[in-house]
Design brief:
Blueprint lengths: L10 E5 L11 H9 L2 E4 L2 H10 L9 E3 L5 H13 L3 E5 L11 H10 L4 E4 L4 H9 L6 E6 L4 H11 L5 E6 L4 H12 L4 E6 L7 E6 H10 L6 E5 L9 H12 L4 H12 L3 H13 L1
Parallel strand pairs: 1-4, 1-5, 2-3, 2-4, 6-7
Antiparallel strand pairs: 7-10, 8-9, 8-10
Helix pairs in contact: 3-4, 6-7, 7-8, 9-10, 9-11, 10-11
Length: 285
């Protein structure tokens, strides 16, 4: 199906583009790319290539490089274009804009100036990895890239250690073995993980196992390409009944029994039924 070109209202359009397979783009994203007055991209070459694949002509429209090194200057121009009534489409190098991406500053300033922002949603490496990793998806925390220095990396992992959610991280193939070794040391060697690489591409692979097993595997068989690392939330936190009652009592002062039980069960990663029954006893006592 060919993209449809139509007049767009003034504003910033955040366009999600494929993380690998070019056909993963949405029809709406193609329409926005065909219609916007101004195009901006983290990598103009990859956007041009994607547009060529889908038969979208750039024509005489400007295509501007917006990345960490050009941000302030190009951001001012894009702001001026929208203020003048133009539609601006921005695409990151891959996936959804603003996720570990320089587009965040652009969207924030647009918002601060009261200018319209619209999303044409689509592919995301974070969500793609979660869907196939086999780890819990009811709660997750995307923590971006870990620091490259070992000391800072371990400190960052220490901060994440008590997070009661699946951790999702981006990582370089050059650092993945060291990061997994540090994660095994800080979070525990038996904690489960999944290493997802080259998602939606020809050599897509998911390695599953304990953090210690994954670290050893990366030493003997270094992975290549784009990597998303997922780490299980670990065992439930040990909490005494008295501490649990204290947390429930505080929650019940502002919430219903049902909502208090939900909040406390989620906080400590405990079975909801157990917490709900304790909450009922507290209210009846």
């Amino acid at each position: 199906m060919n993209a449809e070109s139509a007049k767009l209202a003034a504003g910033l359009y955040l366009v999600a583009v494929p993380i690998g397979t070019a056909r993963d783009i949405t029809l709406r994203a193609l329409d926005v790319l065909a219609s916007a007055d101004v195009l901006a991209a983290e990598d103009t070459r990859s956007l041009r290539r994607l547009m060529d694949i889908h038969g979208i002509s750039l024509g005489d429209r400007p295509l501007l490089a917006y990345h960490d090194h050009s941000g302030q200057k190009i951001r001012a121009r894009l702001m001026a274009e929208v203020a003048a009534g133009k539609s601006v489409a921005y695409a990151s190098e891959a996936g959804t804009p603003l996720i570990a991406d320089p587009g965040y500053d652009l969207a924030r300033q647009m918002r601060d100036e009261g200018l319209a922002i619209t999303s044409a949603p689509g592919p995301s490496a974070v969500i793609t990895a979660l869907s196939i990793a086999g780890l819990p998806t009811d709660r997750f925390l995307f923590a971006g890239f870990l620091p490259s220095a070992a000391g800072a990396r371990k400190s960052a992992l220490m901060d994440l250690r008590e997070t009661r959610a699946t951790l999702v991280l981006y990582e370089s193939p050059n650092r993945i073995a060291a990061s997994l070794a540090d994660a095994a040391e800080v979070l525990g060697p038996e904690r489960q993980g999944a290493l997802c690489r080259e998602l939606t591409k020809r050599f897509e692979e998911v390695r599953r196992g304990t953090l210690a097993e994954l670290a050893a595997g990366c030493e003997t068989d270094p992975p290549r390409g784009e990597i998303v690392l997922l780490i299980d939330r670990g065992d439930s936190e040990n909490i005494s009944d008295s501490d649990l009652e204290g947390s429930l009592s505080a929650a019940l002062e502002r919430l219903s029994v049902r909502d208090a039980a939900d909040e406390v069960a989620a906080r400590f990663d405990l079975p909801r039924r157990k917490v709900y029954q304790m909450a009922l006893k507290l209210t009846k006592g």
